[in-house]
Amino acid sequence: MMNKQSRGRNPAIALIFLLLVLALIFSSFKFIEIAFHSEKTGEAEPVSTKTIERDGLSYFPRQDITVVMLLGIDQTGPVEASASYNNTGEADMVALLIFDESNETYSILMLNRDTMLDMPVLGVGGKRAGTAYGQLALAHTYGSGLADSCENIREAVSEFLCGLKIDYYASLNMDAISILTDQVGGVPVTVTDDFSEVDPSIPMGETTLSGEQALSFVQARRGVGNQMNVSRMERQQAYVEGLLEAFFAKGEQSESFAVQTYDALNDYMVTDCTATTMSTMMTRYADYTLSEILSPEGENVQGEEYMEFYADEEELDDLILRLFYAEKEL
Amino acid sequence: MKKVISCVLLLVMLLSFTLTAVADDVDFVSSIANKGAPDLVEFTAESGEVAVGYVRDQNDQIVEVITADEVMITAVGEAETSGDISAEAKEVLLRVYEELCEPGASLAKLCAALNDDVAAALGAGNNADNLVVKDLFDLTLLGDAAAAMTEDRYAELTFDISLSKDSYVAAMVYANDGWLASSIVNNGDGTVTCKLDATGPVAFMVPGATSGADTGDESGASLIFWGCTMAVSLAAIVVLAVVIYRRKKSM
Predict the structure, then answer these.
(1) Cross-chain residue pair B233–A23, CB shorter than 8 Å
(2) Which of A118, A308, B38, B141 could pair with B161 as two cysteines, CB 3.0-4.6 Å apart?
(3) Residue A2 pLDDT level (bands cut at 50, 70, 90)
(4) With pLDDT > 70 as the criterion, what percentage of chain B qualifies?
(5) Would you say residue A106 lies in a domain?
(6) Residue in A2, A24, A34 nearest the CB of B233
(7) Contact B240 A16 (CB under 8 A)
(8) Is residue A4 a part of any domain in this protein?
(9) Within-domain flag for A212
């Protein structure tokens, strides 16, 4: 009887066994095929994790740096999603803060908003619709103006910098300037130009600018003094110095001032940093010193209609290597 | 912390100054700004007029030269605020935009006439669902151009959509409660020339397969699926082998 049962079960078990083996073979084949394809197209492994060769030397991506991308968006008012698949907020400032944990320093890499590069395009429904070649500032105009747009420009910058891993981003709308001014209780400056034509509320001599006045003070040129840009830049410099002075004075008075400022800017900011992450970074990098402020060299040219900046590729490669890679010791 | 904060503040200031320079300098060449919808490309017509296109009849004969002031293009993002677009055109544009944004929206169903062309261009097995709407806007003709655009005629216009040289592109125009496939040619210089049988919402589509993010996500999901299948199969084989071995041993 037992022999009969065994004979009856064996073909079924053999069939199941065979099917499982076939499933294993097929799934292994598909797994390897996809994995191999991903590796070939660079999808599974970002460029920044790869070792590169240059002049006979090997370089590997630095693991001791944290990169934060700061964006200044040409928009006023609180951050709002656009009613479309694109938006009008160009990234007029693109800067990378690079925190070097080995040397306890940080560097700033400023990117020209007119830098010509390939960028991903987001179509209707936020779907990827190929790439476009154009000014870096436009990379933020694809998407709703919120996180999707920031992710889009992050990808564009990453590609531009040879697959650099950008850990975090934070984008700020223009209103940040008046908010900051009011937050510090006004910015002390010495007004040497006549503002009566532009903003009569700004007196000559020593004064403390309100948020609204600060915007006029740093932005206006026509109708102010000799109307020269150089004069305006001097005012801007004076404003920055006054702002920092006021900011630190406030910070001395209250330990929570930085957090309060963060909260005040919250409606004007999009970031993938949680408050906890931000706080942790500020604690960790509190005593880091500024190493250098850099900007890729290149050529500013007038395009058919607009300004275009073409980075010097060789110089850019050297810059990327110096900032984001370390030599491999053999 | 002070140093980091001061650095951030400095960068915020730099932003505002950059904008100032762009806005105020008389001789300054302005930096590019998003336009929301493609630009029309101007050219000099045979008549000597600076034109943006033609209205042609069924025999491809020019019926009317279209000048820039006879075309109104409204981007989706400008529909609510633009005072120029008619209420009806605005309603239709926003409605079709919503329809295209719906997660289950199928271009293959919305404009089945595109499917054969997509299959021919991208390979068998592809259809319009392999496309992504890159641009969507309302196109309204005005004046003589509008009067000349009767049902048996079409408008031929060239748009700058920053299209890659070798990219496939498709077009459709919304009319009579449905999408009509339109003839379109990639000129290889970022522009496309399109023949529109009607005016109203116009959509340009490109292949979505080049999408790195989408492809990456799909690859990732597939990798997980096949990896899991592989693991489960292997585990089942091992279990089965152990069971058989124990039974044989007990016998």
Answers:
(1) yes
(2) B38
(3) very low
(4) 80
(5) yes
(6) A24
(7) yes
(8) no
(9) no
> Nearest chain B Cα to A281, which residue?
B1
| CATH number for the domain that contains residue A82 | 3.30.420.590
B154-181 per-position pLDDT tens digit: 999 999 998 888 899 999 999 999 999 9
Type of residue found at B242: V
Give the span between the Cα atoms of B57 and B194, in whole angstroms: 15
The string of pLDDT tens digits covering residues B78-105 is 888 888 899 999 999 999 999 999 988 9
A20/B12 CB distance under 8 A:
no
The β-bridge relationship of strands A105-111 and A289-294 is parallel
- For A295, half-sphere exposure in the C-beta direction (CA atoms, 13 angstrom radius) is 13
CB B160 within 8 A of CB B169: no
Q: Which percentage of chain A shows pLDDT scores above 70? A: 88
- Quick check: A67 pLDDT over 60? yes
Give B238's contacts in chain A (Cβ within 8 Å): none
- On chain B, the residues whose CB falls within 8 A of the CB of A97 are 4, 7-8
The nearest CA of chain B is from the CA of A206 a distance in Å of 21
Q: What is the ipTM of this complex?
A: 0.70
Residues of A whose CB is below 8 A from B218: none
* Structural domain span for residue A169: 11-175+269-314
Which residues face A329 on adjacent strands?
none
- Selecting from A31, A93, A127 the residue whose C-beta is nearest the C-beta of B18 gives A93
Nearest to A203 by CA among A190, A214, A186: A190
Residues 97-126 of A with CB under 8 A from B: 97, 106, 108, 110, 113-114, 120-121, 123-125
Backbone dihedral angles phi then psi of residue A87, each to the nearest 5 degrees: -150, 170
Integer Cα distance of A251 and A245 in angstroms: 10
The dihedral built from the CA positions of residue B142, B148, B151 and B157, taken in this order, carries a sign that is negative
Cβ contact, residue pair B9, A306, below 8 Å: no
A176 and B162 within 8 Å at the Cβ level: the answer is no
Q: How many domains does chain A have?
A: 1
Q: Which residue of B has its CA nearest to A10?
A: B244
Max CA separation in chain A (angstroms): 112
Neighbours of A67 (CB within 10 A): 22
What distance in Å separates residue A115's CA from the closest CA in chain B? 11
Q: Is B207 on the interface with A (CB under 8 A)?
A: yes
